[in-house]
Target: Polyphosphate kinase 2 (PPK2 family)
Amino acid sequence: MHQPHLSAEEKQHSHDHLSLDLIEAQYQLKNSAGKKNAKSVLVLVSGIELAGKGESVKQLREWVDPRYLRVKADPPQLLTTNQTFWQPYSSFIPAEGQIVVLFGNWYSDLLTTAMHVSKPLDETLFDAYVNSMRAFEQDLKNNHVDVVKVWFDLSWKSLQKRLDHIDASERQWHKLHGLDWRSKKQYETLQKLRQRFTPDWVFIDGEDEALRDREFAECILKALKDVPDHVQQADAAWTQSVVPQALLQPSSEVLEKAKYKKKLKKLTRRVADALRYDQRNVIVVFEGMDAAGKGGSIKRIVKRLDPREYDIFTISAPEKYELRHPYLWRFWTKLQNCSDIRIFDRSWYGRVLVERVEAFASDIEWQRAYDEINRFEKDLTDSQTVIVKIWLSISKEEQEKRFEAREKTPHKRFKITEDDWRNRAKWDEYLNAAADMFEHTSTDCAPWTIIATDDKPTARIKMLKAILKQLKSK
Amino acid sequence: MHQPHLSAEEKQHSHDHLSLDLIEAQYQLKNSAGKKNAKSVLVLVSGIELAGKGESVKQLREWVDPRYLRVKADPPQLLTTNQTFWQPYSSFIPAEGQIVVLFGNWYSDLLTTAMHVSKPLDETLFDAYVNSMRAFEQDLKNNHVDVVKVWFDLSWKSLQKRLDHIDASERQWHKLHGLDWRSKKQYETLQKLRQRFTPDWVFIDGEDEALRDREFAECILKALKDVPDHVQQADAAWTQSVVPQALLQPSSEVLEKAKYKKKLKKLTRRVADALRYDQRNVIVVFEGMDAAGKGGSIKRIVKRLDPREYDIFTISAPEKYELRHPYLWRFWTKLQNCSDIRIFDRSWYGRVLVERVEAFASDIEWQRAYDEINRFEKDLTDSQTVIVKIWLSISKEEQEKRFEAREKTPHKRFKITEDDWRNRAKWDEYLNAAADMFEHTSTDCAPWTIIATDDKPTARIKMLKAILKQLKSK
Model:
C-alpha cells in the first residue's frame, strides 16, 4: 500500500478524513449493540519489538473516539498446563458494539512459551496450539466477535538501529517479551516460529512510521465496516437421534434403607477425598428434568467437603449483558477465580436444551453449539480438568408426584414455579433435545452418565460411584 | 443460649426443624430479588483458630440449600496503603437475594496487619480503620445488604488441647492467619485487639460443638428473617443550594488560536508526564451538561499517553444486575484490575444528577448519597489515589448551537440522541442538582473544579491546568 508524496496540508486533510471515517464506523458499531447483525471487534496485536505496534495503537486512539476503544496490555505469560490459552483473556472479549485491542494475547503467550522454556515446545505441539486458537477464533466469529490479527514486522537491521536510539523513558515498553533483541539467533527463531501462524494475519511493515500508522488504522476501519456474514443455513435435514431407553423408562430399581445409609456414608467420604486430593480441577455438571434431584445430589457430593473447597454454580437464564457476548462467555468467565472443585446445577448445555426447545437459540445456533461445547470441554480437559457430566433421568409419573409433594410441603413450595409445569408440557421435546445432546457431546474426554432417579437412594449411590469412577480413570 | 439435654431422636427432630426453617427463609430471601424490600445477607466470620468457624459454616451449608449460600475464603492479606480495605472484597458483596459468607474479610486483614507488621499499627490508626469499616457496613445496610458479624471464640486452654489433637489432613486450614497459636502472648494480644471491634458482633463460644453450630445457624436464620427497615424519612425541608454564577453564566473568555496551539502542546506533554510519573493512582471525573466537551477533554488528556497506561470508563445507565447491588458497587468493582490512570466520562455522581432529576433514585437515596460518595472518595484518597473532579459548564445557547451542529455533521450525528434534547428541557433541574452536588461533595481531599466551555480552547487549557495543579498539591 503506497501513497504518493503529499504536501503537509494534503496529509493533514487525508488524516482528518480517515479519522472521520473511523469515528463514524465506530459509532455505527456502538449503536449496533442489541440489534440484528450486531457485532464486536477484537484486535490481536503482536510483532517485533520497536516495530511500532504501541505507536500505531496510540495513533489509532487519537483518530477514533478513545472512549469506545479499549486497550489491554498484560505482559505475556507462559502457557501452562492447568489453564486454557483463552482463560486469561476471557473477560476482555468485547461485548456487542465494543472494540478491544489486546497487546498481550494467546499468540504472544505461545511465542513466549516457545522461546522461553528450557525445553522448547516441539513443532507438533506448537501447531496443535495454533489450530486450537484458530478454532476458538472461528467460534468467536460465529458468535459475532470479529477477530482481526495484526503482525507488526521489522527487519533485523532496522531493529538494531532503533535499539541504538531508544531513550530510557521509553525502554519500559521494550521488555514486553523479556527477550534479548540484540541476539540475531533469537530474532530468527522468533521469525520462523511466527510464520507458523501469521498466514491469516494482516502484515504491517514497521519501517515507515506514517505509512504504518495509516495502514493499521485502515485495517481497523475495514474491520469495523465489514458486515458480518452470520446468516448461515441451518441443517434443514437435521437427523434427530433416538431417545435412549434409559430416558424413556428410567430403571425403577429400589435400594433398601439400611444398606443405603451405610453405602452413602462410605461413598460421600470417598468422593470427598477423591475430589480433594485430585491434583486436577474438577467440574461436575448436572442436567436433567425438573425435580430429578439435582439439589439433593449436590448436597451429597459436598457433605464431607469444607465449604471453602468448592463452588456451586446454579445456572438460570442469561442476564442481558451476558447476551451481548458469545453464548459460552459466561462460563469462560465463571471458571476464573473459583475453587478447584466446581459443581454446575445446569450448565452450558442450556444452549441445546432449554434454548433449543424454547427457540431462544436459532436452529443454526444450537446446531453449531455441539461443536463449540466439545471444543470448550476439550480445551479444559487438555488443561488438567476432569469434567463429569451427569443426566438425572426421571419418569413422567415420578416427576408429577414430586411436583405435587412440593406444592404441599411448606419448605419445598418455593422450589416449584409455573415454569416447571410449563417445561413438563414439553416433555418429549426435552427428551429429543437430550438424545441429540448425548449423541453429539458424549466424548472420550467428557462422557455423559445417565442415572435413573425414580428411587432417590439408588440414584445417589450411582451418582457418587460415577464421579469416583471418572476421577480414577485418568 | 442453653438447650436442655435432649435424646438423640429429639436432637435430630430439632435439627430437621431448624433446617426447614433455614431453607424456607433462604428461598424467601432468594425470591425477594428485584422486589420491594429485597435484601441480601453478608456474613463476616472471624475468630480464634480451631474455635470451629469452618465446621459451623460447613454444618450450616448442610442445613440450607447449599446452592444459594456462597462461601469465600481468601487468605488474609495485609492492609496496604494503596488500596482501600473493601477493594479486595467488593466483587463478593452479595446481590439481592444472595447470602455470602466471607472468612477472609476486612477485619481479618486488620488483625493480620496489626499482628504482623514489624511496626505494629498504633491504636489510633486501628480504631480509625474500625470506624471506616463500620461506616462502610452502614452504607451497605442502607443499600439493602445486611451485614452479620460473627466471632468464634475459644479459651486458651481449649485451644491448646485442640492443637494437641489435630491431624495432618486438617492442618491446612489452621494456618489461615499465619500465627503461632502456641504463643500465649500472641493469643492475648489478639484477644485484646479484637475487643476493639467486636462489641457489635455476635459472639459464639466454640467450646461445645453442637451448641456452637446451632447458635451460628440460628443467628443466620434470624438475619435471614429480619425484615430490613430501609424506609427512612427523606428530609422534607431539604435546602436547595444556590446555583453558582459560574453555571448560570459561564465565562465567555476567548483564546487566540495561535496561542492556544502552543499552550496546548506544552500542557498535554506536562499533563502526560505528571500522570505517568505520579506514584499514586489518579482518577479524573468529568461531569457536565451534554455537549459540554467531555469527549474532547479526554482526548487531550490522553494525547501523549500510551494506550496501555490508562483506562477510560464511559458511564451510562446501570445494567439490571448492577441494580441488585448497592449503587456504588459498580464503581467499587471497576476500580479493580485497571490501569493506574482512570478517566471517568460521567461517574458515581449520576446518583445525585440524572437519578435525582429523573427520580430513578428516591429522595432518601440521593440525599444519603452525598455522604456515601464522600466516604467512598475519602477511602480512595486515603489509599494513594488522587481524585480530580471537573464540571464542564456550558451556556444554554452554546449547547443548542452544538446540538444543531451535531445533527448536521455526518460523523457527529451519532453523538446526539433524543435523550439529549430531553435532558436539555430539564436544564434548571440539572443546575439545581449540580449546585447541591458542589455544596455537599466539594471536599478537601476531592474538590470540584468548574470550567466554562463556551470557548473550547480556553476550556481545554484550563482543564489541563486544573489537573496539573491538583497533582502537584500533594
